[in-house]
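Hey, can you fold this one?
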Amino acid sequence: MPSEQIQWFPGHMAKTRRIITENIKNVDLVIEVLDARIPYSSRNPELRRLTAGKPMLVLLNKAGLADPSMTKLWAAHLTKKDTFCLPVDCMTGEGIRAIVPTVREILKEKIERHESRGMTGKRLRAMILGIPNVGKSTLINRLVGNNRAKTENRPGVTVDKAWFTGKDGLDLMDMPGLLWPKFDDTTVGENLAITGAIKDKILDTETIALRLCGRLRRDYPALLLSRFPFCDDAAMLADMSDLDVMEAVGKKRGFLISGGEINYERTANVLLEEFRSAKIGRITLDRIPTEASNKHPDENGDKIHG
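Sure. Predicted structure:
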């Protein structure tokens, strides 16, 4: 049976922080890649300090897996004076063509200064930042035009910085995934685990799947019951606990062991896999902060509805 407690073992990221601070002066802007399903939870609260106020383009990647209405709200919330936000899907290519024109718009004044000094066509440089497994390498391959950046569907593939010559005059510095040393908000850690940003092998996947059941039961009951029709309507679902939901999914799929007990491990793996592949539906786990502001939520104490 899944536990009510989760133990977190985030990796040590001091090396990545050092690489960022040593190299930020060598780039014109930062491209921050977020997971569109968890825009709050996948945004590192240290990033603004580390990037020293550089202009920023925020990409809500994996938009094809996220709730479209929530992605639209998040894009508007994250766009401000020095930050542009675009929904993209690096796997399908959705939104990729808008990246370079947006970068050029962000850096319009710098480009004009270059041109006034006779440096027309001077290449622009961007640092690519984001948590592990958010899609940075896939993004680079889209912008470079070939499979030069190593990509795997697991966190921790990129281990050091690397430069790539992109198309349309944009050079890209890929960085290792940046995960913060502790999670002050347990919902953030849970959401990172649900989406696969934290390696499954170091976590209790059954407990993580139980948390996912709670998110689905509360925010996406229709999608939950469409994929796993274990009760008649959302009203009945509202009377069930998260554990009731998980057990109902296991029974519906026939994941039973001797004595009719639920095979929690198999049920958990299926729930997580079908969420991550959007077989359950297009779902966003993070909601807009309760007090919208021009600061990142982590910088002013705003709380999310997670």
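The first strand starts at residue 29 and ends at 35. Let me know if you want another pass with a different chain boundary.
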